[in-house]
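We treat protein structure as text, and this decision shapes the records that our systems exchange. Such a record has a labelled line for the sequence and another for the backbone structure tokens. The record that follows is passed on verbatim for readers who wish to inspect the format:
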Amino acid sequence: MDVTQTGSTTAFGASAAPTDAVKRVGDATEISSDFETFLKMLTAQMENQDPLNPMESTDYATQLATFSGVEQQVLTNDLIKSLQTQLGVMSMTDLAGWVGMEARAAVPVQFGLEPITVTPDPADGATSTYMVVRNANDVEVDRVKIPPTEAPVRWAGMDPYGNLFPPGEYAFHLQSFANGELLSETPMAVYSEVVEAKVVDGETMLVFASGDEIAASDVSSLRAPRE
């Protein structure tokens, strides 16, 4: 998904970079200082060792290798922390990109006297399908026979007498039949505005204008909001 960075996100990312750079320089300076101190201690140890029982050269090599290993581990830890910070900024940028977009998902949607495009998903073997429309009180207000295909259909929001239904929240369900027997009833997907995006247990969750919350992976399409 193409994401446009908001001003606040860009500022956050830009302000974080110098701080990280200063920290890395400070860490490197500290490690360099510690290494110089280690060499001084090693030299003093060699100068003050018992000449009748000197340390083996392998012991010095072991000490040097141990210090080098610790040094590399510190640098690796700093690198990991830096990557985690960058990934955090990227994650927030991705989340910001969802908000305000219109995502197609099986959620209720607001009817504002404009036709609503609905996407059916008939059950396998269905020979006839009906679009069932329910209001916010879960009361069926309309039932329309549609072809048993995945082709999008438009709901004009009119009753059989040509009167518009009142503005409000409506949910769409598809009833699939085969030889007069009901096979399934499933929610139908519509485009609805995303008002919030968040990460829950490592998964991106989207909150729609209806208040419904679904996983981003359940969104089948995404588009810019219409004027």
About this structure: The radius of gyration is 32 Å. The first strand starts at residue 102 and ends at 105. The domain at 119-189 is CATH 2.60.40.4070 (Immunoglobulin-like).
